[in-house]
Amino acid sequence: MITLSREREPVKMKKKARQHRPMVPQRSQSPIKPSPNKQILTYAQAQRMVEFELDGRIHRLSIYDNLDVISNDDPVVQEMMECTSNKENADKPQQQVRQRSARLKNNQEKRNAALGITGHAEGSGHHAGGHAAPKLPEPKFRVVEYNLPAVPKRPGAFYKYIEKTEEELDEETEYDMDEEDYAWLELVNEKRKSEGMSQVSHNVFEFLIDRFEKELHLESLDQASEKQPPVDEDAVCSICMIGECHKSNTILFCGVCSVSVHQECYGVPYIPEGQWHCRHCLQSPTQPPDCILCPNKGGAVKKTDDERWGHVVCALWVPEVGFSNTTFIEPIDGVGQIPPARWKLTCYICKEKSVGACIQCHKANCYTAFHVTCAQKAGLFMKMEPINEVTETGESVLSIKKTAYCGAHTPNGCVRRPLSIYEDAKRKNGL
């Protein structure tokens, strides 16, 4: 067997030619060398230390150490500055040293002049005598004459209403002409001119119309007062049974049924002009209303939310009943919330059972029941008084305390005042 061998030819590797780079001069070694024994501080230690390197050594100062403050005028500082200056200027030409010395001298003189320091020795940069203490700048001021203007005294109120007298009201004209008045007056003046009569000015026209309207209004008020029944001075409110009235809470009398009510008790915020009619006389004056809470007829009534009638005083005293709108005191709501046991009570005054909803005597262990209007007719003790109650959250809430007693538990000294505004019901047992 023949074996052929082939020798490898040597492969010559071409070396890449290096680019010729310019020689960079090496930096001289820094004379300040880092400290070989530098300790690593923790975060808490680094927060309390100030670290700096000086002449190759690490120096650490605590922020709590007291440092002495040295001023530029201290002899030690000046000596150190001179030594440093001599050391720096040792290898410099003499001319540069003179220029630097002159510049330092001028700066020192300017600083001393600003601080007010005097007593320098001539020909040298040292102080011949003792250093004078720096003077504080003296304040400068000038008096400016200024006179405040006379300001009138401010009144107690910016707006004050002064009611005009009757003489001033008689002279005042409140009517203002409009476009129709101008056109109508122009036609009237043309007719009067053709008839040889004087012209009517705008001021005269406004004055005459103003007087006509006011006279007509006063005449209508007089006619309305003649139709109204005479006012009873001893009349009381049929709801609260109080005869006192105020300017903002007067007693109103219905022009048809003559029922008397307070504005706040019946919900009349504004008194209408002319005659005033209660709610029942406005809607159904032909038949007396039947109250769903008592058997008596007449008195001040309002409609319920299911289109029935009920006495306002009954709705006030029955605990489960109220009003949807407390300003206008209507409609009466909550009738469906009355428990069946209240409907089954028997009034000890009218002897009616299961007719209306009765209330009971406020005396403890007394369960005598009676209708609200029956109690008014009998003159029982019934009192409402406002009280302030504190809730669990600490808020003060105004509530009404209602107290009613039967005839047997009427407080001593209480004068009974029966209210005779309701129609006589069916008599039982002589009552």
UniProtKB/TrEMBL annotation:
All residue ranges annotated as the PHD-type domain in the record: 234-284, 288-410
PROSITE patterns hit by this protein: EPHD (PS51805), ZF_PHD_2 (PS50016)
Compositional bias of kind Basic and acidic residues: 1-12
Metal-binding recorded as keyword: yes
Keyword tags: Metal-binding, Repeat, Zinc, Zinc-finger
Compositional bias annotation for Polar residues: 26-36, 85-99
Region (Disordered): 1-36, 85-108
Cross-referenced PANTHER family: BROMODOMAIN-CONTAINING PROTEIN 1, PHD FINGER PROTEINS
Protein name, per record: Bromodomain-containing protein 1
Source organism: Goodea atripinnis
Gene: BRD1_1
